[in-house]
Amino acid sequence: MYSVNVPVPGRVRQLANRLHPDLIGFETVREDHSCLLKRLGGADHVAQLQHRAHRALEGTPAVEAAITGIDYFEDPPLGSAPVVYLAVDSPGLEDVHAALTEAFEPVDGLEGGDYVPHVTLARGGDLATARRLADREIDPIRWTVSELEFWDGTDKLPVSRVSLPS
């Protein structure tokens, strides 16, 4: 599966690392952190997927984003529950997501109107622990998203980057 992801600044990774001890009881804890912007599909025609994504993003300006808190999905449409995440507030990223859903079919229940920008921390743990984490206050982390990554989900690495002019 390929996707377009938003790389997050080191401050977001540092926050995730500080929260790590409280996530140990979860089934899976993410070690790499980014914000999934749009799933693109399988690997049959990687170059075509990449080209379509780059064309859909042509002229897209840099956008502002902020981590505003910790939250969770109690009953996610896929995978184990709950999913604890860092909430991302960014109308600009939501606009970019909408543009990508015009070029690529949205995944029902996850994209389009159901899309929630976030950085996953852990999944498959205790609901009470997820609630306690979501009650924590954190200082907002703001940044400018000036590039996006074309991500290879199989090899778990960026294949290319798309600059967003400021």
From TrEMBL:
InterPro entries, sorted: Cyclic_Pdiesterase (IPR009097)
GO molecular function: ligase activity
Entry keywords, A to Z: Ligase
Superkingdom to which the source organism belongs: Archaea
Protein name: 2'-5' RNA ligase family protein
